[in-house]
Write a structure and sequence with these properties.
By secondary structure, the protein is mainly beta. The protein folds into two domains: 2-170, Jelly Rolls (Sandwich); 176-333, Jelly Rolls (Sandwich). The chain has no helices and 23 strands. Strands 1, 2, 3, 7, 8, 9, 10, 11 and 13 form a nine-stranded antiparallel beta sheet that branches. It is globular and about 65 Å long. The chain starts with a strand and ends with a strand. The model is unreliable at 1-8 (pLDDT under 50).
Length: 334
């Protein structure tokens, strides 16, 4: 399906291909007019009506030249995070007379050298050849539930795509972790997920556990101004249950709108799924009492934490509202 407004989305899923999580474009048959690397850039594509290069119109996306021989173009992307793909957005924003009329997608679960290209027999179909609309977010579900490390976008026969979003859930390779390693158990890199939040009017809850340093306030979790009683909260499902050694709560970029205080609760519900969990039915215990926060500061808490043993979920409570850029949960996985 296509969505010209971009209103539809794969809520709560991670863009596994984004350069922010390490995604890389490895190869393309042609990127004469616009570089393949633009496909996985963060943020929406821009448009400048008056900008031209010596090759032609400048476009913020991947654009191949007009094909004058048989065949079609494709681009190979190494996902920054391996995982299960649930849906894709083949975004043709600003490509109106030069978008591809059709596209398809293949995936590979490649265990070899990450800088190498998968062999031809390793590719499997994720999305059959499907029509694209110009200037639109073309959203498609993916039903093949393998663990994928690479995708190959085919466009028929040529043209431009602004962005490719590959939405899914991360499946880490825990065999690489040595016994006793201290890891960021909340990080999306290790399979963490922010499964619920009281409010995210100004900034998405998913930003809390991204691996890169926040670029600005838009790149954090921020709630609206609370005008009544209460406080805001976000629940993080750890990538794997573990014993928490320390926690970082970073208010970077939040200066006049950081929370005054925070506290953290925890529970051990390892079999609880991401969706449909009734959080009030679980035995939450205080992991850290209310603690003062400062503006634009990375706070590290260790001695303040109670020893609760293994936990699977954390609830970050902020009083009364505001913005937090990142939360790191450093611990030893079970």
């Amino acid at each position: 399906m296509h969505d010209p407004s971009g209103s539809a989305s794969f809520t709560g899923l991670v863009d596994l291909a984004s350069e922010l999580v390490g995604g890389t474009t490895l190869a393309a048959t042609d990127d004469f007019f616009a570089a393949k690397e633009n496909l996985i850039k963060p943020g929406p594509a821009a448009f400048d009506a008056d900008r031209y290069t010596d090759l032609g119109k400048w476009m913020d996306g991947w654009e191949s030249r007009r094909k004058r021989v048989p065949g079609h173009d494709h681009c190979v992307i190494r996902l920054g995070l391996a995982g299960i793909i649930h849906g894709v957005d083949i975004d043709t924003s600003h490509f109106l007379g030069n978008h591809p009329p059709y596209a398809s997608l293949q995936g590979a679960g490649f265990s070899g050298d990450r800088s190498a290209l998968p062999e031809e027999d390793e590719w499997e179909e994720l999305l059959p050849r499907s029509p694209l609309a110009p200037g639109s977010h073309n959203l498609f579900p993916v039903l093949n539930t393998g663990r994928w490390t690479h995708v190959r976008l085919h466009i028929f026969p040529d043209g431009g795509v602004a962005r490719l979003r590959v939405y899914g859930t991360v499946v880490p390779d825990w065999s690489r972790a040595a016994s006793g390693d201290v890891l960021d158990l909340a990080s999306v890199v290790n399979g963490g997920a922010v499964v619920a939040a009281s409010d995210m009017f100004f900034g998405s809850k998913e930003n809390l556990i991204m691996p890169h340093v926040a670029r600005d306030m838009r790149d954090g979790w921020e709630t609206r101004r609370r005008r009544g009683p209460g406080y805001d909260w976000a629940i993080v499902k750890l990538g794997r249950p573990g014993r928490v050694r320390s926690i970082e709560v970073d208010t970077k970029h939040f200066k006049g709108n950081y929370p005054d205080q925070c506290s953290i609760d925890a529970c051990h519900a390892p079999n609880a799924g991401i969706d449909g969990l009734s959080w009030t039915q679980h035995a939450w215990q205080p992991l850290m009492p209310k603690t003062k926060l400062a503006a634009d500061t990375n706070h590290r808490f260790a001695s303040e934490l109670a020893d609760l043993g293994p936990v699977s979920h954390l609830m970050l409570n902020i009083y009364p509202d505001g913005g937090v850029s990142r939360m790191r949960v450093l611990g030893v996985p079970e």
